[in-house]
Write a structure and sequence with these properties.
Arc Repressor Mutant, subunit A, binds S-adenosylmethionine, 381 residues, 9-stranded mixed sheet, 3-stranded antiparallel sheet, alpha/beta, binds iron/sulfur cluster, single chain, TIM Barrel, globular
Length: 381
Amino acid sequence: MAGIYIHIPFCGQLCTYCDFHFSMSLRRKDEMIDALLAEMEQRKEYLSNKKIDTLYIGGGTPSLLSVKELGSLVSGVSKYWDISNLKEFTIETNPEDLSEEYLKDLLSLGVNRLSIGVQSFVDEYLKFMNRRHDAERALRCVKDAQKVGFKNISIDLIYGIPKLTDEQWRETLKKALSLNIQHLSAYHLTIEPKTVLGLRQRKGLFKQVDENISQSHYDILEKETHDAGFEHYEISNFSKNGLRAIHNGNYWKGIDYLGIGPSAHSFDGKSRRWNIANNTRYIEAMLNNGGEGGFEGENLTLSDHYNEYIMTMLRTIDGVSYDNLKERFGEVYAEYFLKNIEPFVSKGTIIEKDNNFSIKTADFLISDSVISNLFYINEND
Ligand SMILES: C[S@@+](CC[C@H](N)C(=O)[O-])C[C@H]1O[C@@H](n2cnc3c(N)ncnc32)[C@H](O)[C@@H]1O
Ligand code: SF4
C-alpha cells in the first residue's frame, strides 16, 4: 500500500493565513511541469513493488493548471508506477476555477474525489482571508460538481476566526452539510509567523480568538456534523457513509508515500525526504542537476517514528492499539505508552476498549496536552 502526492506550487492570491509553499507568478509554469516530470523519472524506484492506492494533487492551487497540464502529470506518474487500481484520486481546487467544463474534464481524467477550498460561506470572512471567490460562487461550484457526476466531494472550512459569531458558524455548517457532500475538513484558524496575519499579529493589529470561542465553535462543529450523520474521525475531518480520506489517513498510519514537487515530503518507512520550498531552485535542481540540491532528508529513529505515530493516531477515533504498538515498535515503547497513558484513562480523557486507546472526540481540541505526555525521548538516538 502506498500513495503519491504532487505539489502544484502556484496560487492566484495570497490568502492571509496561509503558509503553504506557492508562488503567485505563473511565468515558469511550463518549466515547473517539466521539472515535476523529471523528478518522477529520477525517483521511479521509490515505492517500487508497492501497490499505489492513492494519488493526490495538492498545493498551492492545482486548479490553476489546465486539464491538459494535469493530464501530462498523470501520464508521467503512470509511466513509472501502476496507477490502474487507484482507490482514490483527489485534486485540491479553488471555487473560482471550477467551470462546468473544467469539472467534466477532471472527471474524464479519472479524478474521483474533489476537495474544494470553500473556507467560509460568509463574504465578510472570505474578504478577511483574501479569497478570490464569494459565498455564492462556492455554493454554485459544489452544485455544478454534483451535476457533472462527482460522488465524493470534500469541502474545507475555517473556524476560530475573530468576529465570527456562533450563529454565523452554525449557519455556515448547516449550509455546507445541506449540500449532500461526503466529506468536510474544518480547521481552526492557526496563525503562522510568515503570513499576513502573522505580520499583523506582530504589529499588534490582530489578535487570535480566546479559548472560550475556540471551544464554543468546536462544540457547534461537533453537534452539527453529528446531527447531519457525519463521522468525526480525525480532529479536523468528518466523513459520511464511510468515505474517509484514504490518502491523508495513510499519512497518519505511517504508510509509505512519495511526494513530488517543491516542498513535498516523502516517507519510505525508514527515512523522510523533503524537497526544497523554492520554485527556481527546484526547477534548476530537477532539470539541470539530476535532483541534486533540490532536497534534504533524514533517517528516522525509532523514537521519531513512534512519536509521530502516537501524535497522528491519537488525533483519530481509531486511536492507538497496544498490540499494534508492540508489533511495530517493540515492548519497551508499548510499555512506556501504557504507563504514561494510564493517568488519562483514570481521568476519563482517554477511552480504553480491548487494549485500544483513543481520545474522546469532544476532547480532540485539547489532544496536544495528552500527546505531549506520551512522547518518548531517547538520549541515544
Ligand atoms: C493546501 S491548503 C489549500 C488548498 C487550496 N489551495 C485552497 O485554498 O482551497 C488546504 C487547506 O488548509 C487550510 N488551511 C491552510 N492554512 C490554514 C491556517 N493557517 N489555519 C487554518 N486552516 C488553514 C485551508 O482550509 C485550506 O483549504
Ligand atoms: S489557501 Fe490555497 S489558495 Fe490560498 S494561498 Fe494557501 S494554497 Fe494558495
